[in-house]
Amino acid sequence: MTTFDDMTATCKVIQVVDAATKTSIRYVQAKPVFPTSARDFLVVTSEKRLNDGTIAIASRSITHESTPEDKHFVRAHTHVSGYIIRPLGEDECEVTLIVHMDLGGMLPAVVINILAVDSPVKLLKRFRELYNTRKSSRSIRPAVSPSPPSLSPVSRSAGEPSLPFMSGSKEYIQHGAEGVRILLDKASATCTDTTWNEVKSSEGITVYRGVVEGSDWNAVMAKGVINCPAGFLAEILQDIAEMTTFDEMTASCRVVELVDLPTKTSVRYAQAKPVFPTLARDFVVITSEKRLEDGTIAIASRSIEHPTVPEAKGFVRAHTHISGYLVKPLADTQCEVTLIVHMDLGGMLPAVVINILAVDSPLKLLKRFRTLYENRVYKSISSSSSGHDEEEPIDYHAAVKPHQRLGPQVLKDVHVAPKSDYDHKTKDSHCYLCDSVPIFIHRHNCRICGHIVCGNCSTHRIHTNSWKTMRTCDKCVLELQQNENQAKAATSPTSEQKSDITVQAVTKRTPKTQSMLAWGVISSGALLSSAVWTNESIIITLAFFVLLPILIGYFLQWEEVSP
């Protein structure tokens, strides 16, 4: 959806309702159009195939307890929206797009009615640009009944279309289950065909290189703790729309065939980005999931041949022996992730070179998980996947004390992230705190943690010694305020200590003589001004290095006299 619709920022499935009618509940965020706020949609989508081969796909608004209205979006109401796709031939179809929605907000409907004419024209032209030149094997599936579950995937003809459908192939289900078994075996301490050695460690993430018996290509394993729920991260890892977000080396990924819903088994085709001077790689894998008794979620992928996805020109077909994740819950919002990869990239590049270079990629990937998914509002976790009720998200903006000024002293023991660790400012970047898609002029990087935040979630500044201010997200500001308040509370006398405090006489100061006062004003002011002189502007110099020292010099010449 984000590919063919330029106005869609994100789209995710909240709940799969019925596989037969492809009914699901979806949450969509649209990109904002200046100066209006962005819209979001919560719809139920369903599909029906008519007797003449026409395919009807319809969406309409619905409410769902897991996705309340977001303060950063205007919740639009979709009366109906969908497509009627009528086949005209093997490689041709007629598309009818119908949309009736209420966008809400303050913008008059008469304005939207005038502007809304161009969008569907552009969308259908976009379909032509993207899909007119595709091979017939990727065209829309004719209205035929799906293959029976007992049909072997090998015996399927190469001319069959490749859009996703629920095949229920027992052979594919067994192949996916075998992938999970191999993944668990690789991660176990009793693995006999792989010898693991630690090669790198950074920020709590450890990388191991595995020498696999009978293979020139090494396996790689990385372990690290991610501060997000295990169920949430597992959903992300299974979402093909998110794959190009968290894995910067993935160019595209699509589902070729849905096999089994309970085990989330599917055949997928992925294309990796090329690394100069080598050709790009592509992969055809079967992915399956298994939940263990201790709550660990195993997601495994391994290569498979599929008749609808032959080797493509311009790509080297890589072979994935095993690739996957073990997501083990440690707490409600914390999990341990184990990434294991063993693949043969093929081509002319020697395996020994890849074995050396492959260590950094899993380390970067787990750090990317932390950047993208730690401390997010976990709205996408369904009760079925997590097994627990969702926690109320923290409103950091409301929790921050607006009148507590933060100076350079709060940065004493704080690590300020270098710009190299900042999140990339891509068009579809989400705010680290509220998960909104900021307008380009309101997207910033927090100077403490480096995450992307919107203007509403970065309203505070920290004043440094060099008269500069640091833009900081409200989460970091709240933590700094709490730390400072705790430090003040620790140094202040407690109620028990106050009983031991004795009252002492207060002294006051009076000038000795008028001549000494005048001398003190001139001499102390001049000395202090020259001692702290810096190359600042005239206004700052006069205010801080002339007037202020003179006042200090004035008070320094007062004589202490007991009352």
TrEMBL record:
Name the residues that span the membrane.
Answer: 539-556
> Which Pfam families did the record assign?
FYVE (PF01363), START (PF01852)
Q: Which UniProt keywords apply?
A: Membrane, Metal-binding, Transmembrane, Transmembrane helix, Zinc, Zinc-finger
Listed GO CC annotations: cytoplasm
For the START domain, which residue ranges apply?
1-136, 196-378
Please give the residue ranges the record annotates as the region Disordered: 138-160
> In what residue span(s) does the FYVE-type domain sit?
425-481
* SMART domains associated with the record: FYVE, START
Q: Gene3D superfamilies attached here?
A: 3.30.530.20, Zinc/RING finger domain, C3HC4 (zinc finger) (3.30.40.10)
Stored InterPro entries: START-like_dom_sf, START_lipid-bd_dom, START_lipid_transfer, Znf_FYVE, Znf_FYVE-rel, Znf_FYVE_PHD, Znf_RING/FYVE/PHD
GO terms (molecular function) for this protein are: lipid binding; zinc ion binding
Name of this chain's protein: FYVE-type domain-containing protein
The source organism is Aphanomyces euteiches
